[in-house]
Write a structure and sequence with these properties.
With 294 residues, the chain is mainly alpha-helical. Helices cover 76% and strands 1% of the residues. The protein is built from 14 helices and 2 strands. A hairpin with a 7-residue loop joins strand 1 and strand 2 (48-49). The protein is globular and about 75 Å long.
Length: 294
């Protein structure tokens, strides 16, 4: 057994298939997208090399700018609303003793539901005539309170953000709760003896000890909101009037509806670079804080 473990081919047998899959499903698509972004191409006829023309066009594209802004809105909502909500619910569940398993299962259920089903479900809830939300609003304030949630440019994005949050916060709650429950009981007991109760215990004990998990949540939130696609595609397809357009839906429309595969590939490359830069900045900030604390 020890001889086998000392053999470098043993490790290669496990590492090489992983590297091949990584190259096939990540390195190759990114490389091909960048190459296609250098051409004007409809996917059928001959490609025409235009250099960085597609990328220069991207910088002047107002629709792409609006789509990127909507992605930033997704990100801001996730950081300002979802994560504080996750922390509050996870801390509350962590303090209960009875039915804790039920609460964990209840908040996690939306995560295992298909995004398509979630989008259709909320589409039914938002329906103007028979949707539960408008029915409740009519009972409170009459017909004037009913709203066209997915057809109003001022409300459509909020409606999608709520649906997206409902599906995804459960995963982060379970992740955060696991970190909270992993805090040694002696630490919490000592804090209470010293008079740190409620908010002081949360601020001085809980949050610093779960900081690595908070960073993972932050990283996943940023990368996920920059790549969001399916729930927007199903609920509004970027409408009305491009008010909910995001980079991924715009990429699909340009590449496969307008048959501008070169420009669509340039949008995909831009998404990759933006996500890489933002996640890299977060990792750099987290690393500098660790060095400062150390």
């Amino acid at each position: 057994m020890n001889k086998t473990l000392r053999n470098p081919w043993t490790y290669a047998a496990f590492v090489i298939p992983t590297l091949l899959l990584y190259a096939l499903f990540f390195v190759y698509p990114v490389t091909v997208s960048f190459v296609y972004g250098l051409f004007r191409w409809d996917g059928i006829s001959e490609r025409t090399f235009i250099g960085l023309g597609n990328f220069k066009r991207l910088l002047r594209d107002a629709t792409f700018g609006q789509a990127f802004g909507n992605n930033l809105l997704f990100m801001a909502f996730s950081l300002a609303v979802n994560i504080p909500l996750v922390l509050a619910v996870a801390i509350a569940i962590g303090k209960v003793r009875r039915l804790r398993g039920f609460y964990k299962s209840a908040v996690f259920v939306p995560v295992v539901i298909s995004t398509a089903i979630v989008a259709i479900l909320f589409g039914v809830l938002y329906d103007y005539d028979s949707g539960l939300i408008n029915q409740a609003l009519r009972l409170i304030g009459g017909e004037s309170w009913a709203r066209e949630w997915l057809a109003d440019p001022r409300l459509a994005m909020l409606a999608i953000l709520i649906a997206n949050a409902w599906q995804n916060v459960g995963f982060f709650i379970v992740l955060c709760l696991a970190a909270i429950l992993n805090i040694p009981g002696e630490v919490s007991d000592a804090a209470r003896i010293d008079g740190a109760n409620g908010w002081r215990e949360t601020r001085l004990i809980t949050l610093p000890l779960i900081r690595p998990v908070l960073f993972v949540m932050l990283l996943l939130s940023v990368s996920g909101t920059l790549k969001v696609l399916d729930i927007v595609q199903i609920m509004t397809n970027g409408g009305p009037f491009q008010s909910t357009e995001v980079m991924s839906t715009y990429m699909l429309k340009v590449g496969f509806r307008s048959l501008e595969l070169g420009y669509g590939s340039a949008i995909g490359v831009a998404m990759f670079v933006i996500t890489l830069v933002m996640t890299g900045m977060l990792q750099r900030i987290a690393g500098s804080e660790e060095v400062r604390e150390g």
